[in-house]
Every structure is written in structure tokens, then in C-alpha cells.
């Protein structure tokens, strides 16, 4: 699978806002003539910007459990080009 483009998504909660970016891969059903589409590569998801209570926060300083919880917020978001 080849990477095609970078997409972004936003989570907006009451106290926290997160902007995620991710690469996509071109995929299909694996049979000749099947349709193709771009799909988010889950291993490429990164936090582009994190704001908690109005303050910019860096992900690298967070405890692993909090880091994982923030990354989980990307599940189910609408990705945009």
C-alpha cells in the first residue's frame, strides 16, 4: 500500500482541543477491478496541536496513560483533506 495524502481531524471538548494528522493509504478489496479509496493509516496518527484549559501542551511530557487516552480520542472522528 502506498501513502497518498495527509488528512486532519479535530476533537473539541469542554476543557481540551486536539488536532490530529494522519497519512492515508490507497486500498481496495484485493480483486481486479474493485473500487479504490483512501483509508487512514492508524499507525501514522499524530497529535499536531493539544490545548488543555486554554494552554498549549506538548505530548512528549505526558504520562503514558494520558498520552494513550488522548490518542484514543481520534477514534471515530471525521478526517478531512
Describe the overall structure.
The chain is mostly beta strands. The chain has one domain (3-72). The chain has one helix at 64-72, and strands spanning 3-12, 16-28, 36-40, 46-52, 55-56. Strands 1, 2, 3, 4 and 5 form a 5-stranded antiparallel β-sheet that branches. Strand 2 and strand 3 form a beta hairpin. The longest helix is centred in the C-terminal third of the chain and has 9 residues, at 64-72. The chain is elongated. The model has no long low-confidence stretch (mean pLDDT 93).
Walk me through the topology:
Elements lengths: L2 E10 L3 E13 L7 E5 L5 E7 L2 E2 L7 H9 L9
Antiparallel strand pairs: 1-2, 2-3, 2-4, 4-5
Question: Can you give keywords for this protein?
Answer:
5 strands; 1 helix; about 80 residues; mainly beta
Order of helices and strands: EEEEEH
Strand content: over 45%
Name the poorly predicted regions: none
Shape: elongated
Structural class: mainly beta
Largest sheet: 5 strands, antiparallel
**How many domains would you count in the coordinates?**
1
Query: What helical percentage do the residues reach?
Result: 10-25%
Beta strands, count: 5
Radius of gyration: 15 Å
Amino acid at each position: 500500500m502506498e501513502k497518498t495524502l495527509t488528512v486532519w481531524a479535530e476533537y473539541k471538548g469542554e476543557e481540551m482541543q486536539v488536532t490530529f494528522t494522519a497519512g492515508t493509504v490507497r486500498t481496495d478489496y484485493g480483486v481486479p477491478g474493485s473500487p479504490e479509496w483512501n483509508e487512514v493509516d492508524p499507525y501514522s496518527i499524530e497529535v499536531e496541536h493539544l490545548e488543555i484549559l486554554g494552554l498549549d501542551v506538548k505530548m512528549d511530557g505526558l504520562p503514558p496513560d494520558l498520552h494513550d487516552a488522548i490518542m484514543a480520542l481520534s477514534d471515530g472522528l471525521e478526517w478531512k483533506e
